[in-house]
Amino acid sequence: MLISVLIACYPAKAAAPAGTDAGAGDAEARGMCPLADCHDMATIATTFRLSPATLGKHEFDLEIDGIAVSCSVTLAEVGRQVEAVCSSYHEPVYLRVVPPGEERQAPADRDKLMWELMIVGRPEAVHVTQRVGGRTLLERTTTFPHYRIFRPNGPRCAPECKLARVEWTIP
After folding, report:
1. Which of 27, 110, 138, 148 has the fewest CB atoms in 10 Å of its CB?
2. pTM of the shown model
3. Helix or strand or coil: residue 55?
């Protein structure tokens, strides 16, 4: 079984944090709930510097609760959506790369990229090794001991899902 991994490049400041509440507003007050769906999800967001050395083929070796998953994608041009294929895992895994933003971003941040690894489900531990051109950029493990409750349709409306997020920086 193959799992599709999506790497999409978006302006960095346009990316909403995972789990931002989509308020139901007046509809909820009238006892009507919107129909937005959600899934339990763990996210790892990693910031790194954009340079010629970070363009090229990115290989990700993941271990999600003891299950090995490998993905690769070529980041040749910031601003384009690129799809990759990963080895099997029982839940979808998504990956996106966020490029430097426009004028609204601080000059010191314009040379930074951020990738977000989004794993559907509630993994307890994830180990990530990221390589570019055979060079290891990152090797790190994280645990997700606490998931927060998220209700996309408002506090009194179903569904309820659980979200966790960690942030890393590659020097």
Report:
1. 148
2. 0.73
3. coil
The answer to whether residue 72 sits within a structural domain is: yes
Q: Is residue 20 part of a domain?
A: no
Look up residue 65 and give its DSSP letter.
T
Residue 22 included in any domain: no
Token representation of residue 78: 């910031």
Residue 144's nearest CA partner among 127, 160, 126 is 126
Domain count, the chain: 1
Does residue 42 fall inside a structural domain? Answer: yes
Distances (CA, A) of 159 to 12, 25, 145: 29, 16, 22
Query: Which pLDDT tens digits describe the chain residue by residue (171 residues)?
Result: 233 333 333 333 334 444 444 444 555 556 688 889 999 999 998 888 777 777 888 899 999 999 999 888 787 766 655 666 677 666 777 777 665 554 345 555 667 777 888 898 999 999 999 999 889 999 999 999 999 999 999 999 999 999 999 999 987
